[in-house]
Amino acid sequence: MTAMESLEPAGDSAGPFHVSNRLIFSIALPMTLGFLTTPLLGLVDTAVVGRLGRAEMLAGLAVGAVMFDLIFATFNFLRAATTGLVAQACGRGDRREQQAVFWRSMAIALVCGLGILLLSPLLLLVGLWLMAPGPEVAAVTSTYFFYRILSGPAALANYAILGFVLGRGQGTLGLLLQTIINGTNIVLSILLGLVLGWGVAGVAIATVTGEVVGAVLGFLIVFGRFDGQDAPGWAAVFARNRLKALFGHNRDIMIRSFVLLAAFALMTRIGTALGPVTLAANAVLMSIFLVAGYYLDGLANAAEQLTGRSIGAAYRPAFDRALRMTVAWALGLAAATTLAFLAFGNALVDLLTTVAVVRAAAYEYMPWAALTALTGALAFLMDGVFIGATWSRDMRNMMIAAFLVYCASLAALVPLFGNHGLWAGLNLFLLMRGLSLLALVPRRAAQTFRPAQ
């Protein structure tokens, strides 16, 4: 048995397999723990900057964070496409294609990462133009951007590495890598930002260091476990038909990711117009929303792997059972999360900022932030299902449709209700995404599994 085989999830061999709670949570639980370190990192960064005592500093960090969401998360297709394609190769028992997908994704990640570095001055100018912060907030954002952009190649490489790991259902390894990246970041953020007094620059440098450490270690672990007998040649890695399929899948996921981040950027942009206190309060509450999102992403990752694997194995019963079970768990956990935020959310706000006016504003809008766990549960999970199934075109189309409704709702609600309308629009956007994708599943599943029946 090779080292790589020793970390195979149960039932990784090709063909029919049984979906159980144990199998779901062997993937979901480690990744939930791993992904929770990401919003935890956001909470720490917010707390570090929030304790500097100036709303402009917190607002500048919020604007910078959204800019990097737009830049990096636009390339989240590197993780998502890799996960779906590797999972389907697992279902077929095709180890050679698993490695080939990894090398294709890594090559794209490095090229795109270098492109980000080269275009960084232009990206900063465009980002500041889109966000339109005041002079003091813009200065803070520029400082953060100057350092954080250096993580570009490593951040995208981490997407490809994590996508490969998740596609194979190796949740424990994914947890390890996420913990190393975000743990390094958290420790250095506190050390550089607060202890050494580097402020926003220290927070950005901590992020760069975490990404680089994670990328180097992740690559060494994954590459070290490849079986040389299954290594694909370069002709197989860059085969035209495979690249065409990958780029088509990547294109649709990239558009979907860009529209999603545009929705969050639009929320920040409108929040900017409502004043620095409201913008800072929304930044605190968005950290809470991200906790719910990353918390539920573990189940979405389980859905990705099991959906892709069932399609690769051409086994409809596993697909249906995985869908039913993950939906039930997602809704149940989301309801519990909403209740927890309603009960303890204000105490969490107090930990994140010492600015009294920001605290008061965050208390007012807390119920809306708590509700996002429930309204977003199906959206997060259905993304996992559609990524694993490589139904990327449907996911793209439903995202665009939901975004158009979101824009219309903001145009109607914000003038009437201010920031309450802004948060109501976000919840409507999340709910529409989940319900529209769920409605498409029966027809798409029937089409996908028809040849095997």
Folded structure, characterized:
The protein has 453 residues and is an all-alpha fold. It folds into two domains: 19-238, no CATH class; 251-452, no CATH class. 85% of the residues lie in helices and 0% in strands. The chain contains 17 helices and no strands. The chain is globular and about 60 Å long. The chain starts with a helix and ends with a helix. The relative contact order is 0.14. Residues 1-12 have low confidence and may be disordered.
Please give a quick description of this structure:
GO terms for molecular function: antiporter activity; xenobiotic transmembrane transporter activity. With 453 residues, the chain is mainly alpha-helical.
Low-pLDDT segments, ≥5 res: 1-12
> How many separate structural domains?
2
Helix and strand element order: HHHHHHHHHHHHHHHHH
Secondary-structure class: mainly alpha
- Mean pLDDT over the full residue set: 84
- What percent of the residues sit in helical stretches (DSSP H or I)? over 70%
Name the beta content range: under 5%
Distance between the termini: 34 Å
Number of helices: 17
DSSP strand tally: 0
